Amino acid sequence: MSARPPQFHVTADLIALTITDGVLQVAVVQRKSDLACIDIERNGIVQEIRRDSEHHWALPGGHVNVNENDIDHAAVRELREETGIEVDVKSLVQVGTYGKLGRDPRSGRTVSVAYLAFQPKIANPNAGSDAKQAKIMSVLELLAEPNRLEFDHETMLIDAIQRVRDMVITTPIATNFCAPEFTLSELREVYEVLWHRAYDKEISHRERQKYASEIREYTSDNYFQLLSSMRVYERITHGMPQLKFELASMSNRALEEKISKIVINDARRQAPKNPAIRERLDPANFARKVVGIPNFIEEVPQSGKRSSLTGTGRPAQLYRRGSAERLDPPLRLRVKKDPPKDAR
Amino acid sequence: MSARPPQFHVTADLIALTITDGVLQVAVVQRKSDLACIDIERNGIVQEIRRDSEHHWALPGGHVNVNENDIDHAAVRELREETGIEVDVKSLVQVGTYGKLGRDPRSGRTVSVAYLAFQPKIANPNAGSDAKQAKIMSVLELLAEPNRLEFDHETMLIDAIQRVRDMVITTPIATNFCAPEFTLSELREVYEVLWHRAYDKEISHRERQKYASEIREYTSDNYFQLLSSMRVYERITHGMPQLKFELASMSNRALEEKISKIVINDARRQAPKNPAIRERLDPANFARKVVGIPNFIEEVPQSGKRSSLTGTGRPAQLYRRGSAERLDPPLRLRVKKDPPKDAR
DNA sequence: GCAAAAGTGTTGTTGTTACACCCATGT
DNA sequence: ACATGGGTGTAACAACAACACTTTTGC
User: Which residues in chain A have their CB less than 8 angstroms from residue B62's CB?
Assistant: First the structure.
């Protein structure tokens, strides 16, 4: 090795995923620069072009500080700074490191470490200091025309999804998509969404576009933003005086729950239709399989039950994550192969 | 981000694995420096101490050049320079990136990307320019007293083994441990070895030591080095004149095979005993399961058959790797749980 | 001939799927 | 009352482990 070894820039990038109503979503930001770094031909050559502020996105991330304890600390910090989302370092999963020559056309050579983060439900992301705008976006929409990801972030995202799919079989990370206490159908939704072939790595561009259009009107732009917007709350309290009275007499905790329930119901009514980009798993068999894996999940002792998200149906038992770090045996769910396509 | 982002050293480290006679082995080197960087208390604090040239080892690896196309290229180059082992970039698997502050006490801050490499049978490693010595060593022996790995290479190695175990059930990488053409028992050996609890991540230090001593006399120091040494060949040809004559009349290809057969037989006689750090899988069921996975492996058409490694028994059908990039369904092998220990 | 390994066949057991059925809740 | 989802039961089916048996080699 030479006396003065070469120096690199090291950055941490984050794939912050969440699952909402059958759609896998990811946090993206828009960098301040007027130039966007896009791999136009998808051939590995990234070049700076004039930014399309509607359709050019990047994963949140940035430089690691030399005094920072570990790279994942930088990942957490950058996600907070750029999107306002707060995650625990312990829950991060390293996806891989990307260091191809030319992956960043700007000065110096940059190596990026990509991390996965999970959010039960990502609150409205705030534009931070490092980005003009930040938002949660459906993965399918992001990967479809006319949207583009900067640098090699599309590769990172696809690798990350592949990794999640692998890990939910052998580890309990699927619970990271849920709140600390969850019902079996909430957990099942995670698998149903991830199992859908729209997220297959080797799917055709054409087909992905099709799935993207199915859910286009259903993402953060209208429905999800609306859900957490103040206007909904105002509409509720203004429009229904008797409700306002009822709320005033409730404890803070109960009030929150009540409001969130109303907001959810309202949003559901507003939603054009459920996009349902997901497989269907038999609830009964899923439940048996999941509770049969030692220490995967455990019942919440005081028999608190939660009504289902759709509002109707029998309230379900609550569970929380168990002590297992790996699923043994791994969770195998049937992959329904309607067309028994021959061996390729 | 500041105007002048911080700079890091970036290195590539390699975990080059091979499986021989029921023992998982890894390539290690001894750095030239008189000081070794050891995490003495295994608490993350690496310090420079006087080198014990018998028991202090490091994974092969080194700095990435700024003009190098990708990090894995550097990995291949470093492995060649330090051990003489040649691997294909395409066969590398990225394990992870290690960037904790203080993982390298020498000047500057270093981030290391760890890669897995596979060798069907690693030839005698040559000491390269960057290392006083390089050798292939049993993983168990390396992890047991009094041997120590430098930096955080022990963590890397254990992570790598865990990754291999995960990947052999979902991808065809197990074939990377075999020659291009292999018999089913050669493939089965890979799984039998990797399945052994000696390679469990959460095994006690005490127990690992026990397994290490079982195979101590059986590693590269005597048996494996001997196998490929010239002395064996000389002993054969000198000691048996009639054999020499027979060899002289054979084609180059047949000669090679004949010699390798003799050398293997000889080495087996020399070996104290088979260490057998492996599980036993039912050959019949294993074969059925493996050939049942679409495109995992395929028969070599011209019905070449190879006699088993032990010399006796019916010659087996040869196979080679198929076109599948993932095993679907994944390969599930029974984990015989003799002690039905309760849920932890 | 005997030992050892490759293959093929078979059987009892285990695990899984696909339903039917009852329960508890909101509208 | 009815729709909707939670949860239990179960019969038909598929997958698998275990073991017996035949084949083909080296010694």
Answer: 1
